[in-house]
Amino acid sequence: MTFTRRSLTIAASAAALVFACTAAQAEKKYGPGASDTEIKIGNTNPYSGPASAYGTIGKAIAAYFAMINDEGGINGRKINFISLDDGYSPPKTVEQTRRLVEEDKVLLDFQPLGTPCNTAIQPYMNEQKVPQLFVATGATKWNNPKQFPWTMGWQPNYQTESRIYAAYILKNIPDAKIAILYQNDDYGKDYVKGMMDGLGDKAAKMVVAQKSYETTDPTVDSQIVALKGSGANVFFNVTTPKFASQAIRKAYDIGWKQTQFLNNVSNSVSAVLQPAGLEKSAGIISSGYYKDPADPKWQQTQAYKDWLAWMKKYLPNGNLGDAFNVYGYTVAQTMVHVLKQAGDDLTRENIMKQAASLKSLELPMLLPGIKISTGPDDFAPLKQMQLMKFDGKAWQLFGEVLSAEGS
Amino acid sequence: MEQLVQQILSGLATGAVYASLALALVMIYQATESVNFAQGEMAMFSTYIAWSLVQAGLPFWLAFLLTVAVSFLGGVLIERILIRPVEAAPVLSQVIVFIGLLVIFNSTAGWIFTYTVQEFPSPFGDVPLLGDMITSSELGVIGVTLVVLTLLYVFFRFTPLGFAMRAAAQNPGSARLVGIRVGWMLALGWGLAAAVGAVAGIMVAPVLFLDPNMMSGVLLYAFAGALLGGISSPGGAVVGGLIVGVLENLVGTYLIPTELKLTVALAVIIIILVVRPSGLFGTVMVKRV
Amino acid sequence: MVDAGKIANADLTGSSAAGLSSDGWRRLGVLAVIAVALVLPWLFSNYHVFQFTLAMIYAIALLGLNLLTGYNGQISLGHGAFFAIGGYTTAILMHRWGVPYYLTIAPAGLLSFAIGVLFGLPALRLEGLYLALVTFSLAVAIPQILKYFDSWTGGSQGILLAKPAAPAWFPVGTDRWHYYLALAILLLVFWAGRNLLRSRTGRALVAIRDHPISAVAMGVNPALYKTMAFGVSALMTGIAGSLAALATAFVAPDSFSPFLSISFIVGSVVGGIATISGAVFGGIFIQFVPNVASDISDAAPWAIYGLFLLAFMYLMPQGIAGTLGELCRRLAAARAATMASRRGPLE
């Protein structure tokens, strides 16, 4: 059974290869998983286990592709999105990814989630020459086309964001004494590293305290009390949503006066600031690249209305305040754009080529002025962000669109 | 010095969170001589019920009472329908059923209510007290935990039903002989534990914020607190929970880097248990040959 | 608590109708299973071979846990930690010192053994719930400990390994090679485990579980046996962890979350606690059932998984192996009865 299916596909792809060599440029070319009627896309997401909050992204992507299919698909081809649960466990990711590549024979693996999970499959994907496209992690290592030409990131990386805050601090708070709370994993440590690098030789003097927490900790209260005790006047809050709410509230409740920088992961008004208390969140500085759906300033725009209509129809269970639903929507649009651009040449090589030739792509739910660009040596699609300050009701963007890439 | 006081107070506040769930663990242990690993997730689920009721516009205390009642019924039903078939099965098979319940409640809550963090109102407000050292909602957790503790103490010490329940758990055969309906005692125990858990969930949700994983981190600490104090003693469980909260804060602040605070706090608890295997306030269990 | 006598009973009631002793039948059965296992990788795709490899690796880990929890009565909710120690030993030896992969499996087992023995010491004073707490604490603490010593373990980034290829003298492809490697070690570990349990030591372990005080009275040293049980159990699970690191070519703290330890206890109870074959059923269960659950529902895969757990425990409270053993015993008894009635008048 498996044998026949496998040999058929091998025969088919061999035939396609021969065909490709002889046929003219305009002819259709198909890699595994692509045909006249279908494009097969694989994905792994944590739908079970302690990281299942992120599973929202996978569901949002599936919902967006469902809409594209209802509208007739991409150049007449329906997207067959196969998203598998890996429970955020790297060995399971390896297994599920092999299923996608070897059994389901997907054209590409889109948005696999989690830094350790993507690390585990990166050598395999590059060995098999299967696109590991727009991975859902903000680590810096995905922008390495020389060594890993089949792996590409998507979101602005954590270190870039940190460096933007560092630059702001150096310019505006020269007497800063910085206390950092971070999640004890690669995500948290990337932010800390970005801050240290951005501060340069001032880092040793400016950063007066660092405390970490585990995702299994019930609260971060003790860490906040300790950070306050360090006498810091700047608080760099590198936490995921629930812990961000706890940290913001505790810092306020114990009367710690500081300028707070909150990482982008947790700057959702309805999911983080509102639970923590809007008045307790006033004055926080963060940065963004997509529109917060809860922000009244965007709710009049067509972009928001389209997003809302899609949410209502395709993700009726989804939470309207959850920024992951904007993230999934926007990254799926990026994918659709690449597939459209690939036209009738749906080979894995061409997918990577098209993904690496995005020119100033603007998507509706990205902030004005934020563009997606890639090139043969630039596998970091999003690298711009804009600073913003919370005024007690909504985020107010300020300054220019910034990019710390390469600086 | 101020830092020390603040760490201790903050530790007491988190400790009260552990203690409140530890009480539910003690309740189920008293009634069934086993520890339900799904207790935390059941409490989380009850809290979502309360949250839905409050969202629907019910006054807080009405939602509270309704949730406690629904949770009690839910606990009884779970025992009658889901636990009963494995009553005679080996202990480990029961543990697997508990784990099954744990993942079912966790996953179902995420499915129905999504994983977005929800704010939950505190009946005690959110006012900083004692020079910004503790908030009224945290103080509320401590207060309610003490009230529940008193109720449990009175229930087990002075009411016939409490006696019957303990008898049914400790010696089902003899209990049956004196006319206690052992099966219903177990169901009642599950119901009461679920109700105590619901109170715990509703009280801690304003402090921890409500999401489907709210209790998964708390369970280990509550379990440690309950055993540290002595699983057969409600008072011990509360003291145990508070000790765990304070110990963890002090260890993480003064002794070692925060990365290892859980590890070291657990190691300390284990050492205490090795020295005093029945916990600080527990009674020694006599082994029969 | 757990009826370990089951397997022994099955032996006694085996039928000798076909001229074979029950032991003979059993041996035949085992040989048949081994024969199927040898052919299996040639019938399935590489991906499935990889899955079978993982299932066998889990089976080795579960046998270790079974030895401790099933036969010796010491509950462990933290065996994922020994799995991690084994995996990291292999990864660090290969990555830092370039040790050939086949030389890392034994050290992984030995280090796990040593740590297991050390851990068995406090466990001597603690029983039941207390031991559950201690071992579960270990499961929760291990990812943090791994992250803390990041100069050795690579921190949360983990360690990537080059997946060992098949040797030149056995050119079967990488996945089949790992399969046969796991199969060989599985057979070795199972053979050793069976011999251990049938020996004086095995009887002592069971005696300590069932009648601790009488065991002491009969001159069994419980401290020695209990710590040794912890050590040997950790040894097996550590070897499994080493093989898993090789098969997935990656270790990271997230690979060893507390849920792994929970999966292990689930696997050994569902497979059949205090049985040797139960470890194999358990390995298959924890490898494949989560996939089935996720195929049924992306919305709430854990809820489906939980329902599977409940269903298995209702239908087979003694686990798969326990229930099958019971079934065989009844069949044999029924056949023996008919044989006897048929033979009766003729004699």
Task: Explain what the structure shows.
The complex is a heterotrimer of chains A (407), B (289) and C (347). With 407 residues, chain A is an alpha/beta fold. Helices cover 42% and strands 16% of the residues of chain A. In chain A, the strands form four sheets. A four-stranded parallel sheet of chain A has the order 3-2-4-5, with helices on both faces. In chain A, strands 7-6-8-9 form a four-stranded parallel sheet, with helices on both faces. The N and C termini of chain A lie far apart (55 Å). Mean pLDDT of chain A is 90; it is low at 1-8 and 15-25. Chain B starts with a helix and ends in a 14-residue tail after the last helix. Chain B is built from eleven helices and two strands, in the order ααααββααααααα. The mean pLDDT of chain B is 88. Chain B has helices at residues 2-32, 39-55, 60-83, 91-113, 136-158, 160-170, 172-177, 182-208, 216-229, 234-255, 261-275; strands at residues 128-129, 134-135. Chain B is globular, with a radius of gyration of 19 Å. A two-stranded antiparallel ribbon of chain B has the order 1-2. Chain B has 289 residues and is mainly alpha-helical. By secondary structure, chain C is an all-alpha fold. Helices cover 76% and strands 1% of the residues of chain C. Chains in contact: A-B, A-C, B-C. The interface between B and C is large, with 43 and 49 residues.
The main sheet of chain B comes to: 2 strands, antiparallel
**Percent in helix of chain B:** over 70%
What is the strand tally of chain C? 2
Into which percent range does the helicity of residues of chain C fall? over 70%
Write the H/E string of chain B, N to C. Answer: HHHHEEHHHHHHH
Neighbour order of strands in the largest sheet of chain B: 1-2
Largest sheet of chain C: 2 strands, antiparallel
What is the average per-residue confidence, as pLDDT of chain C, rounded to a whole number? Answer: 88
The best one-word shape of chain B is: globular
Structural class call of chain B reads: mainly alpha
Number of strands of chain B: 2
Provide the low-confidence segments of chain C as ranges: 1-17
- Percent strand of chain C equals under 5%
Task: Note the beta-strand portion of chain B.
Answer: under 5%
Low-confidence blocks of residues of chain B: none
Widest beta sheet: strand line-up of chain C = 1-2
